Amino acid sequence: MDAELKKLSEKVREAARSKRALRLRGGGTKDFYGQALEGEVLDTRGYSAIVSYEPSELVITARCGTRLSEVEAAMRERGQMLAFEPPHFARFGSDGATLFATVGGAVAAGLSGPGRQAAGALRDFVLGTKIMDGRGEVLTFGGQVMKNVAGYDVSRLMAGSLGTLGIILEVSLKALPLPAAEATLRFELPEDRAIEQLNRWGGKPLPISASAWNDGTLGIRLSGVAAAVKAAREKLGGGLVETGPAERFWAGVREQTDRFFRDDTPLWRISVPSTTPPLKLQGEQLIEWGGALRWLHSHADARTVREAAKRAGGHATLFRGGDKAVGVFQPLAPALVKVHKQLKREFDPQGVFNRGRMYPEL
What we know:
Shape: globular
Number of strands: 19
Number of helices: 10
Number of domains: 2
């Protein structure tokens, strides 16, 4: 067993024996996400490296502590990318050091960026995982090819689990080619018309890879072969945004450095069917993913926000700020609570990993 892996296993086994909580932590860029942080920090950054990369097979495998930027740089050199555009949220720590996103942290958080609209979610790109469970044992699920289905659901289960089930030691992710051409168009539209237009376009063969509406302005990104992007530009009209400002805009949405996200008001992440009309909630909104993702800055109480999301057939997450005592994630139905508890017991019988990070009872 690798020396760093052995060290992690010993710490997990010791914590399990004493029933002591461990807080799994990579770069720490998503410490804000989820319920309260609890337990002794178990730093995973020492277990890092790109294990394998097969551009012809469209798959890359990396260890948990590998910087996400390192993985994306290696892929760019071969003309490929993580099409779901996982946010890094890199920032400066309290000691002034730069905090970098890691592969394990990105998968555990399960967050996707603007590209989610066309490419799919992070979970859809997970081909296989190697994890360490709460007994300190190493388990392998899935594989390194897109057609592999053995254990596929278990691998996907790790995406968005916030480290509550185990340490994601390695993950194999599907790669996609970088688009040959891109263009960003801007339209002046009120919220209701923007939602209608996005859904109308969504039913047509257009190379729309991302969209974002805020304060009366809708931006859409076209990505693909040059001919398709050119034809879509001519068909849709709108104002063409220069390459530099366009790239900065989409990076600002992905990394939440855009003006909208700099508000200190509690930030809600509301997932609803794309055709949902304006939610008419107090506060400012930014709409992504063709209408399916509504970011809301608001002081409205949790019940109001969640009931609005539920009526629309969706759910709401208190993404950043606010009072976490109301629960960060949408409360689960009793049957789902039972399933979550069973999974937790199976993978982490002593409740070592990230206690209460997702739900207080887990």
